[in-house]
Design a protein that fits this description.
The chain is of the alpha/beta class. The protein has two domains: 2-114 and 240-316, FAD/NAD(P)-binding domain; 117-236, 3-Layer(bba) Sandwich (FAD/NAD(P)-binding domain), CATH 3.50.50.60. The protein has helices spanning 13-24, 59-71, 135-138, 154-163, 183-191, 286-306, 308-316, and strands at 2-9, 30-32, 76-78, 82-86, 93-97, 101-109, 113-115, 131-132, 146-150, 169-173, 195-198, 201-209, 212-220, 226-230, 233-236, 240-242, 272-274. Strand 13 (212-220) and strand 14 form a beta hairpin. Bound molecules: NADP nicotinamide-adenine-dinucleotide phosphate.
Length: 319
C-alpha cells in the first residue's frame, strides 16, 4: 500500500490544476488519471475560449501541457481506475485502484460527469464531425448551417439559443410536447426567430457521409411515423451522468447525483474535497473547472496544514 499526502481522482482540467497547486506546495500529489488523460476535454477537437491561447488549441494539447506543468513540480500520474474508496474512518483515506492501493491524508475528487448519449446508430461515428455535446465549444464551427438540438431541458434551450449566434436555423427536437426548461428560457426560445421545434420526436439514427452529418431519422412518439430531417449538425443535451458510482453512499450527493460542496470545495467528509463537473452541474467549462480545481487544492493545502499534528500522531500510532 502506498502512503500519500494527496490523491487526486480524475485528470480533467480541475484535477490537473489541483495537481499543479498541490505539487507546488511540495505535497507530491498522485493523480489517478483514468484510462485517458483529460476526460471530456481529451475528445474536444478545438478549445477557443481558454484564456491565454488566442489561436486556440486542441483538448489533448491543453491537457498534456497541464500535465507537464504539474509534473515539473512533482505531481505523479497513474493511468488507472479507482475500484473502491473507503472514507469511513476519516483521514487517512483508503483508495483502491485496479493496480494499487493508496492511503491518502487528503483526497480531491475531480472525476467529472459524462454527457448522456442517445445511444443511436451514427452517434459515436460522427462525434467531432457533426455530433456535439457542447455548444460553447463547437458552435463556431456551424456558422451558416442548419442544425438540430436534442432535449427539452434548460441546457437544450440555453445552448440552442446560444447556437443561433452561428447557425442559420436551430430545430429543437423534444420527445414530449412540453418542455422541461424554465419558463423564462422557454419564452426566449419561442421569441427567437431562428429557433423552431419538433415535438413528440426521438432521434433514431444520425445519418452522414464523408463530409459529416447530413440528416437525422426521427420517430414520432405518438404516431410511430418515421421521417428524415436534413441537418448538418446534431447537438445533444439530454443531461449528464456524474461519475459517482465508485463512492457509493460514502459522500453526500445532491438529488441529481453531484457531490455537494461548500464554498471551500469541502465535501461532507472532512479532508475530502471535490471540484469540476462532479460538483458543478451548470457551468462545465475548462476555465471554470480550472478555477474550482485551484480553490479545492488551496483548501486541501490549508486543511493539511491545520491537521499536520494529528496526521503525524496517526502515522506514528501502531496500525
Ligand atoms: P435535464 O434537466 O435533465 O433535461 C434533460 C432533457 O433531455 C429533458 O427534456 C429530457 O426529456 C430529455 N431527455 C433525457 N433523456 C433523453 C433521451 N434519451 N432522448 C431524448 N430526450 C431525452 O438536463 P439539463 O438540461 O442538462 O439540466 C441539468 C440541470 O442543470 C438542471 O437542474 C437544470 O435546471 C440546470 N441548468 C440550469 C441552467 C440555467 O439555469 N441557466 C442551464 C443549464 C442547466 P423529458 O423532459 O421528457 O424528461
Amino acid at each position: 500500500m502506498k502512503k500519500e499526502r494527496v490523491v487526486i481522482i480524475g485528470s480533467g482540467p480541475a484535477g490537473l490544476t489541483a495537481a499543479l497547486y498541490t505539487a507546488r506546495a511540495q505535497l507530491a500529489p498522485v493523480v489517478i488519471a483514468g484510462p485517458q488523460l483529460g476526460g471530456q476535454v481529451a475528445i474536444t477537437h478545438e478549445i477557443e475560449n481558454y484564456p491565454g491561447f488566442p489561436d486556440g488549441l486542441t483538448g489533448p494539447e491543453l491537457v498534456e501541457r497541464m500535465k507537464e506543468h504539474s509534473e515539473n513540480f512533482g505531481a505523479k500520474y497513474e493511468f488507472d481506475l479507482v475500484e473502491s474508496v473507503d472514507f469511513s474512518n476519516g483521514s487517512p483515506f483508503r483508495i483502491k485502484t485496479y493496480g494499487e492501493e493508496y492511503l491518502a491524508d487528503a483526497v480531491i475528487v475531480t472525476i467529472g460527469a459524462d454527457p448522456r448519449k442517445l445511444g443511436v446508430p451514427g452517434e459515436e461515428e460522427y462525434i467531432g464531425a457533426g455530433v456535439s455535446y457542447c455548444g460553447t465549444c463547437d458552435g463556431f464551427f456551424f456558422r451558416g448551417k442548419d442544425i438540430v438540438v436534442v432535449g427539452g431541458g434548460d441546457s437544450a434551450l440555453e445552448e440552442g439559443i446560444f447556437l443561433t449566434r452561428f447557425a442559420t436555423s436551430v430545430n429543437i427536437i423534444h420527445r414530449r410536447d412540453e418542455l422541461r426548461a424554465g419558463v423564462q428560457l422557454q419564452q426566449r426560445a419561442f421569441n427567437n426567430e431562428k429557433i423552431s421545434f419538433t415535438w413528440n420526436a426521438v432521434v433514431e439514427e444520425i445519418i452522414g457521409g464523408d463530409g459529416g452529418v447530413n440528416a437525422v431519422r426521427l420517430k414520432d412518439t405518438v404516431t410511430g411515423e418515421e421521417t428524415i430531417h436534413p441537418t448538418e449538425g446534431v447537438f445533444i443535451f439530454i443531461g449528464h451522468d456524474p461519475n459517482n458510482a465508485v463512492f457509493g453512499d460514502q459522500i453526500a450527493l445532491n438529488e441529481n447525483g453531484y457531490i455537494i460542496t461548500d464554498q471551500r470545495y469541502r465535501t461532507n467528509v472532512d479532508g475530502v474535497f471535490a471540484a469540476g463537473e462532479i460538483q458543478d452541474e451548470i457551468w462545465r467549462q475548462v476555465a471554470t473547472s480550472v478555477g474550482q480545481g485551484t480553490s479545492a487544492a488551496m483548501a486541501a493545502i490549508q486543511w493539511l496544514e491545520a491537521h499536520e499534528e494529528t496526521l503525524q500522531e496517526l502515522e506514528a500510532a501502531p496500525v
